[in-house]
Design brief:
The chain has 527 residues and is α/β, with parallel strands linked by helices. The protein folds into 4 domains: 106 residues, Rossmann fold (3-Layer(aba) Sandwich), CATH 3.40.50.2300; 71 residues, Signal transduction histidine kinase, dimerisation/phosphotransfer (DHp) domain (Helix Hairpins), CATH 1.10.287; 160 residues, Heat Shock Protein 90 (2-Layer Sandwich), CATH 3.30.565.10; 119 residues, Rossmann fold (3-Layer(aba) Sandwich). The strands form 5 sheets. A 5-stranded parallel beta sheet has the order 2-1-3-6-7, with helices on both faces. Helix 15 links the parallel strand 18 and strand 19. The radius of gyration is 36 Å and the shape is elongated.
């Protein structure tokens, strides 16, 4: 051995001289032993429980106590390290029995030169076993992560699949709301109720977009968002969710703060933190506060918050009077799949998603928590100036852009959506023909190619996709403008649509809101 090897050795020996002799031989062989000697069962048990040993060297025969008793105590402690008998009386038969019982090896006292090589060999073997255990634990961890990743991928695939049906339902709801609003005078009391239905439908539409974002691993487009309305809406949702024993409070500044973000995702963050705060309240009794203030971070404060830039920030917080967290837990709460909840009560994904959303908003999140004194989650988002007013088209403004009886052919396998869209287009001044079957729609165009001014087709249909229909129609009448509506728009779909000569690809959930304007722009561009 070229370098001294430090080892901590538990020596089970009734003779101090024999123990010193063994340590002297180990020093000569290149070890630097730090040893502790015990000579009875109680001493063995206490030493094994309290110390961190690299090896155990035990005599076999001691007054009132045997090496086999020591070995049994060692095995009971569940330790994996060399256990070497050093004895002058052990026979071959007894030695074999000791090895079978779990001893690593034995050395006769009249041949102590074997002790150092035996110890060195057994330490190497123990290190290999430890490395193998670590590798197996790491493998199990990776297998668990892979299983979780596959589960998340399956959920994403499912999300993308059901989004089509969700979009059809939402399009029918929102479209019928828009048709109903158009049939009533502006001061009719039902108009306000329809407005509430529309707001809920639009919120559901945003949730569907989140599902689609999850399924295709794309980031949201951020825009100017007023923070106070997001907090107020979250407060309303939490208030009806929390039990009566939870006191939910707001602590908001009067100034309206704007950030560059996604309102639905910010609400998801606050809902998650609020729900976690509720679960942290012992006996579901306590206080939760949603707060907002403006803070101006200097360079030092910004660096301490995960490298934010200095300047004005919206400081949101969610505090509770719950059980709190210790330092070790607080350091791990944003790790994926880490949870302190019992099995079946949580996935450990909530706070990792919260952290990901905040980071995607160029923000930072910090946590203060003390056991039995509650927790406060602090969110910092850069403040931006309010968005300037732009000429945007609202739900009720489609009437101002009227068609001139142009013939629109609409294809969708969902009858309810088809009826609603046709109603919207006809109210906007267009003449419409609707089809539920792609073959019938293509045949109608083939029978009178010049009679159709625009084709609008759903993408996801049985038998043919909207792209298949577009390619067939392009062979019949290359100049006919085509719009595809889809609940799941990917870069691949946009590229394929462009190659097929499609004029525009429209989000399915935006059909009721944007289709009349889009039709007008497409037709105007073809003149």
């Amino acid at each position: 051995m070229n370098e001294l090897t430090r080892v901590r050795i538990l020596v089970i020996e009734d003779s101090e001289n024999d123990a010193r002799l063994a340590m002297r031989l180990l020093r000569r062989a290149g070890f630097e032993p730090d040893y502790h000697r015990v000579q009875d069962l109680h001493g063995v048990q206490a030493a094994l429980a309290q110390g961190h040993w690299d090896a155990v060297i035990s005599d076999f025969s001691m007054p009132g106590f045997s090496g086999m008793d020591a070995l049994e105590a060692f095995r009971g402690a569940g330790l994996d390290m060399p256990f070497i008998f050093v004895s002058g009386t052990i026979g071959e038969e007894t030695a074999v029995r000791a090895i079978k019982a779990g001893a690593s090896d034995y050395v006769m006292k009249d041949n102590m030169s074997r002790l150092a090589p035996v110890l060195e060999r057994e330490l190497v073997q123990a290190a290999r076993r430890a490395a193998h255990r670590d590798a197996e634990a790491e493998l199990r961890r990776f297998e668990q992560q892979l299983a979780e990743a596959q589960k998340m991928e399956s959920l994403g695939t499912l999300a993308g699949g059901i989004a089509h049906d969700f979009n059809n339902i939402l399009s029918a709801i929102l479209g019928n709301v828009e048709l109903a609003r158009g049939e009533l005078p502006g001061d009719h009391p039902v108009v306000a109720l329809l407005g509430e239905i529309q707001k809920s439908g639009l919120r559901a539409r945003d949730m569907v977009r989140q599902i689609l974002t999850f399924s295709r691993r794309e980031s949201h487009q951020l825009r100017h968002v007023a923070v106070q309305p997001v907090i107020h809406e979250t407060y309303g949702l939490l208030r009806v969710t929390l039990p009566a024993g939870v006191d939910l409070e707001l602590d908001l500044m009067d100034e309206v703060l704007h950030v560059n973000g996604d309102g639905t995702q910010l609400q998801q963050v606050l809902m998650n933190l609020g729900t976690n705060a509720w679960h942290a309240l012992p006996g579901e009794v306590g206080r939760i506060v949603l707060g907002l203030e403006r803070v101006d971070l200097d360079a030092c404060a910004a660096r301490s918050l995960s490298g934010l830039s200095a300047g004005p920030h919206a400081h949101l917080w969610v505090s509770d009077t719950g059980i709190g967290m210790d330092e070790a837990t607080r350091k791990r709460i944003f790790e994926p799949f880490f949870t302190t909840k019992p099995t079946g009560k949580g996935t450990g994904l909530g706070l990792s998603v919260v952290h990901g959303i905040v980071v995607a908003h160029q923000g930072s999140i910090a946590v203060e928590s003390t056991p039995h004194q509650g927790s406060t989650f602090h969110l910092y988002l850069p403040i931006v100036p309010p968005a300037s007013l732009t000429e945007t088209m609202g739900p009720g403004e489609a009437d101002s852009i009227q068609g001139h009886c142009e013939h629109i052919l609409y294809l969708d396998d969902d009858e309810t959506v088809s009826l609603v869209v046709v109603g919207l287009l006809e109210r906007a001044g267009y003449r419409c023909s609707s089809f539920l079957d792609s073959a019938a729609a293509v045949a109608a165009i083939a029978a009178a190619p010049e009679d159709v001014d625009l084709l609008v087709t759903d993408y996801n249909m049985p038998g043919r996709t909207g792209l298949d229909v577009a390619r067939e129609v392009a062979r019949i009448r290359p100049s006919l403008p085509i719009v595809i509506s889809s609940g799941l728009i990917t870069d691949e779909l946009r590229e394929s649509a462009e190659q097929a000569g499609v004029c525009a690809v429209l989000e399915k959930e935006d059909t009721f809101l944007k289709l009349p304007q889009l039709v007008r722009r497409v037709l105007a561009g073809r003149r």
